[in-house]
Amino acid sequence: MAAKQYGFYFEAGNCVECYACEVACKAANNVDLGVKWRQVISVWGGTFPNITNTAISLSCMHCGNAPCAAVCPTGAITKRAEDGLVVVDRDKCIGCHYCFFACPFGVPQYGDDGTMQKCNGCLDRLAQGKKPACVSTCPSECLHFGTLEELAELARERQALNMVSSTEGK
Fold first, then answer.
1. In terms of Cα–Cα distance, which of 154, 164, 165 is closest to 11?
2. In 10 A of CB 115, how many CB atoms?
3. pLDDT tens readout for residues 18-64
């Protein structure tokens, strides 16, 4: 288990579906055309005439027990001990797609060279003390990155604010 587990926290209610996180990720990581390390999806619900649409920004969840790493026959996918981020060594990847089928979130993507690629938390930016590109670019600040403890505290704060706001409106 990682000394500290880092991850993302997304506030769907604040997302304006601008796709800036997708664009920033592609640009910062030189991601192949057609491949998305982070993607914004629309989740539609309800029945006519009460239709809802919620935008969700998704990337690798950097799972505690990453199923993609467990099935990788070459050991190309590993979980970093220092931060819990799940990373891919594309030089070791043989493009077998086992990781794609094992991932419950459908995260693994395959580039022009046929090897798996996915979000790495912008390791180069983190090494410089910066936030991941998707987080620093989000205009509505609905995307956050940090330790799971920091993100849990943020979620508690947001929930408390929402509860106060909903009681004040009554």
1. 154
2. 19
3. 999 999 999 999 999 899 999 999 999 999 999 999 999 999 999 99
DSSP string covering 95-147, please? ---HHHHH-TT---EE-TTS-EE-----HHHHHTTPPPHHHHH-TT--EEEEE
User: Are residues 28 and 41 in contact, defined by beta-carbon separation less than 8 angstroms?
Assistant: no
Residues 6+ apart with CB under 8 A from 29: 37, 120, 122, 133
Q: What are phi and psi of 145, to 5 degrees?
A: -135, 140
Residue 28, φ and ψ in degrees, nearest 5: -70, -30
Give the phi and the psi of residue 2 in degrees, each rounded to 5.
-70, 150
